[in-house]
Amino acid sequence: MKIRFNWSLWLGLLLSVFALISYPFVFVRWPVTRDFPWANLLIFGLAAILMFIGVRQAFGAGRRRGARILSSFVAAVSLLILGLFIFSFFIASRWLPAAHGAPQIGQKAPTFSLVDTTGKTVSLSQLLAEPINGKAPRGVLLIFYRGYW
Predict the structure, then answer these.
(1) Cys-Cys with 47: which of 16, 17, 35, 91 at CB 3.0–4.6 Å?
(2) Is 103 a member of any domain?
(3) Which regions of the chain are under pLDDT 50?
(4) Is residue 45 part of a domain?
């Protein structure tokens, strides 16, 4: 009896791991995939189809008991990975507290003064008053860095 490698089973597991890891490292960069993880759910769906095919092959006629146990274990691990993703994105992320005091989009920022990278104190009103290339600025882009360097 020739032992055949169950490609669809292992590819399904690999896709499940990729779908879990790709969200924080790849898909979180764009709002269209960050706000709702449709791309990751699509990859999980493809992984589920491959898992189904792989488990079906493992339980086919003439397959060894060890192949059936291994395919069941791999499918269970893939389901646990999907469950972890669903739990972390749809349930645990809702436990984060709301930022009630955070400025809203389009809201004017309060006046403030901060030290720039050269050590000079700069105020928001000063930035809005200084002309740039002979034109009055229409706004100021604020970038907040977390951490230190």
Answers:
(1) 16
(2) no
(3) none
(4) yes
